[in-house]
Amino acid sequence: MSDCIFCRIIAGEIPSQKVYEDEKMIAIKDVAPAAPVHVLLLPKQHYDNIMTADPELVKYMLGKVETLATQLGVKEKGFRIVINTGKEGGQSVNHLHIHLIGGKELGWPPC
Ligand code: 5GP
Ligand code: ZN
User: Whole-prediction pTM value?
Assistant: First the structure.
């Protein structure tokens, strides 16, 4: 989708700091990190959010979390994955993405 920021990042039209890529997804550093480690896992195919995405693709992306958490140095200390969905869920970019956040003690609840 030409008007989607994340599709444009995936297409290389907008620069990003990529930490992982394969045929189905990329992971990039969040431009406004909420913690020392904050990356976004993005499927290369556009889905507005988790409600419309192929569950097998979501499963595939979740299957990469351990690899990424290890690569980013947070596997042992702990981290959080977040999928904001819709307006009240805090989703600001309507291209499915999984936040992987860590590197400090995270607060809870998030509201
Ligand atoms: P949401 O609020 O939709 O769950 O998360 C969107 C995330 O995308 C936010 O954490 C925001 O900082 C990040 N973001 C928005 N625009 C860009 C961008 O152009 N590049 C990168 N790397 N992150 C972005
Ligand atoms: Zn998109």
Answer: 0.97
Q: Is 33 in the pocket of ligand 1 (CB under 6 A)?
A: no
- Cα 32 to ligand 1 centre (Å): 7
User: Catalytic annotation on 97?
Assistant: yes
d(CA 37, CA 104): 8
Quote the CA–CA distance of 109 and 4 in Å, as a whole number.
Answer: 30
Q: Which helix (H) or strand (E) holds 14?
A: none
Ligand 1 contact, 49 CB (< 6 A): no
Domain containing residue 91: 5-102
The CATH number assigned to the domain holding 31 equals: 3.30.428.10
Per-residue pLDDT reduced to its tens digit, 52-111: 999 999 999 999 999 999 999 999 999 999 999 999 999 999 999 999 999 999 999 988
Q: Is position 110 within any domain? A: no
